[in-house]
Amino acid sequence: MNTPLIETIALTDLHPATDTFLVDVHEGLGQAQKAIPAKYFYDARGSYLFDQITKLEEYYPTRTEMGIMKAHIDAMIERMGPQCLLVEYGSGSSLKTRILLDHLQQPAGYVPIDISKEHLLRSAEALALAYPGLPIRPICADYTTAFQLPDANGARPVVYFPGSTIGNFEPEEARAFLQRIVQIVGAGGGMLIGVDLRKEVPIIEAAYNDAQGVTAAFNKNVLARINSELGGTFDLNCFRHHAFFNATHSRIEMHLESLGDQCVRVADRYFPFRYGETILTEYSYKYTLEAFASLVASAGFEVEKVWMDEDHLFSVQYLVAR
Ligand code: AVJ
Fold first, then answer.
1. Which ligand 1 atom sits closest to the C-alpha of 252?
2. Closest by alpha carbon to 156, among 126, 185, 116?
3. Ligand 1 first shell, C-beta below 6 A
4. Helix axes 117-130, 44-53, angle to 10 degrees
5. CA 71 to chain centre
6. pLDDT digits (tens, 9 = 90+) for 59-113
7. CB count in 10 Å sphere of residue 110
8. Residue 61 CA: which ligand 1 atom is closest?
9. How big is the CA angle at 301 (ends 305 and 318), to the nearest 5 degrees?
C-alpha cells in the first residue's frame, strides 16, 4: 500500500497558537480605533473566499499580474537564475507559482510559507503531484513576524512575494519585512514581488466593493471566525462592509461598520460599539514606482527591473539585495 503523498511532504509547523489569535483580537478591539489584523482573514473559508475574489471582474490585480508573468517570464527566469531555491511568501495555490516552476532551470526546491495550514498542505500536495522530483518544503508560519527558514543546504534562495500582499503592511512594517528578506537572500540575492500601483480611485475602490458582495463576505468572515474559534457573540447582520481609498496615505482601508449601539463578548471580555463605529480589518497600500523604489532602497534592496501591463495597473518587480 503506497503512502498517501501528503505524508511524504515534510511540513515545518510554526503556526501561531490559538491564544495568539485571542490576545490579538482582545488587544485590537480594545484600541480607540478598533482593529483586527488582516492575517486572521485566512481560515479555510477565508482562503476560499479570497480565491473567489481573484476571479471577480472588478478585482484586476490577480489577472493583471498573471498577464505580466506570462508576457515576461523568460526575462524573470533569466534574473532568478538556475538551481535557485524558490521561497514563496504565500501558499502557492496560485497559477502564478506554476508559471515560475514551469520555467525555472533545475530549481533546487520550493518552500511555500503560509499561515493557513490546510490551504498550504492542499496546494503543496497538488504541486508535488505536478512537479515530481521537486523537493517541496512547506512552512506553516505567520510571515508578518520573524521566523527561521530551515537550512537551504547551500542552495541560493530567491524569494517570491506575489499579489501585492506587501500592500497589507504599513510602511514601517514593510521596511522591516523587506529587511528580513535581505538577510535571507544575502548580498546579490533576488526577490520577485508583485506591487499594485496607484491609479484612478474608482478602479481601485471597485476592486474592494464588488457588486456580488464577495469582498463583503470575505471581510465579515473574520467575525464568524472569532465566533467559532474564540467564543465571540458577533451578529454579522449588525455590521456592514465599508472599503474606501484614503488618498493621503495612498491605501485602501477595509472596515466593518457597526449598524447600531451594541455590545459584543469575545471569550471573557465585552466590547461596546457605538452606531457608526468601525473595526479596521485591512490596509492595502497602492504604490507609485518612485515610492516603492525608495521603500525598498531603505530596506537594503535595489529595483533591478520593473514589468507592467500596458495600462500600468500592476507591476512585477525584480529586486536585488545590496
Ligand atoms: C491578498 C492582500 C493582496 O489587499 O488586494 C482582496 C486581499 N482584500 N480583497 C489585497 C484582499 C480584499 C488582497 N491581498
1. 4
2. 185
3. 53, 61, 163-165, 167-168, 208, 215, 282, 284
4. 60
5. 23
6. 999 999 999 999 999 999 999 999 999 999 987 677 899 999 999 999 999 999 9
7. 25
8. 5
9. 25
